[in-house]
Amino acid sequence: MSLTNPGAARPGNGNPRDTVRREPFGTRLRRAMDTRGPLCVGIDPHAALLADWGLGDDVAGLERFTRTVVEALADRVAVLKPQSAFFERFGSRGVAVLERAVAEAREAGALVVMDAKRGDIGSTMSAYADAFLDPASPLFADALTVSPYLGFGSLRPAVDRARASGCGLFVLAATSNPEGAEVQQAVVADGRSVAAAVLAHLARENAGETPLGSFGAVVGATLGGSLSGVQGVGLDMGGPLLAPGIGAQGATAADLPRVFGAAVGNVLPSISRGVLKHGPSARALREAAAAEARMMAGALA
User: Fold this and answer.
1) What is the pTM of this model?
2) How does DSSP classify residue 95?
3) Of 143, 141, 12, nearest to 75 (Cα)?
């Protein structure tokens, strides 16, 4: 599978402030993965990486880094995933950089997953949904990462807003950090793990959506056999599986079939440092992303 600009098949078309009804996120994501390759590249401008690029740990360095990644990759990768925290730490000027990056990435055809991991209740959750999933917002993205650990029902404002806007959610289920297991693999009253219960909720939200549901889960590619508590419900819950942990955290493309089993075709591998370390050369970033996409496509076939 080639990692090139698919021209008319751009999955993330339109101005981020448009009000035209969109195809569901799952439909657009499936097309983007099939056309551009199954790869999500994180935009994680942390201080050490800025230094590696010869940039200052300031707004100017942040902007140069972010613009380079977007200009190099947004017309060819399926998904870009900016980590909101690395922009928020610079205050309003950093958020302004994020706003421009989201708009420019979507205009170039990439789908944008905002990695903000928001989670709250009631009007506060509604406000987070307005910030990231309302087409009128300058931070409007194609999908948002969210935390269900105030109860899956607390995410209802985000679920409803995403569905109305043609957006998606990636819900934390079985994450790649080792600390996550004490909560995610805890057993609920019916004997399932918390992670399995989250996946069951997502299966209900995705019911009837084809070819891919819009409500996905974050499931670490590093987990391997520790997913036994999840497998009973099934990772194949009809939506995409955002899989961090490849590269710097130790997982490889070859691990994906073993970890995800029958659901491997719905996996969206997420890589940050494995691609970003090749900057600041735009050409090197493109070559690294293309190589990763080919490996992922081969592993997920």
Assistant:
1) 0.92
2) H
3) 12
Active site amino acids: 117
Tell whether 63 is covered by a domain: yes
Q: Are 222 and 251 in contact (CB under 8 A)?
A: yes
Tokens linked to 185: 């693999």
pLDDT digits (tens, 9 = 90+) for 63-111: 999 999 999 999 999 999 999 999 999 999 999 999 999 999 999 999 9
Specify burial of residue 86 (Cβ count, 10 A radius: 0-12, 13-18, 19+).
Answer: buried
Write the CATH number for 249.
Answer: 3.20.20.70
User: In DSSP terms, which residues pair with 287 in a beta bridge?
Assistant: none
- Token pair of 69 as six digits: 């990644």
Structural domain harbouring 128: 34-300
Domain count, the chain: 1
Write b or e for each residue in 9-38: b if 16 or more Cβ atoms lie within 10 A of its Cβ, otherwise e. Answer: ebbbbeebeeeeebebbbbbbbbbbbbbbb
Residue bearing tokens 């990692």: 3
3-class SS of residue 109: coil
What's the farthest any 2 CA atoms get from each other in the chain? 53
What was the pLDDT predicted at 21? 62
Which residues have C-beta within 8 Å of that of residue 191, sequence separation ≥ 6? none
148-188 residue pLDDT tens: 999 999 999 999 999 999 999 999 999 988 899 899 989 98
Q: Which helix (H) or strand (E) holds 75?
A: none
Q: What is the Cα–Cα distance from 13 to 137, expressed in whole angstroms?
A: 16
Confidence of residue 16 (pLDDT cuts 50, 70, 90): very low
DSSP 23: P
119 in any annotated domain: yes
Tell me whether residue 29 is in a domain: no
Residue 50 in contact with residue 65, Cβ under 8 Å?
yes
At 201-232, the pLDDT tens digits run: 999 999 999 999 999 999 999 887 666 556 55
User: For residue 84, is it within any domain?
Assistant: yes
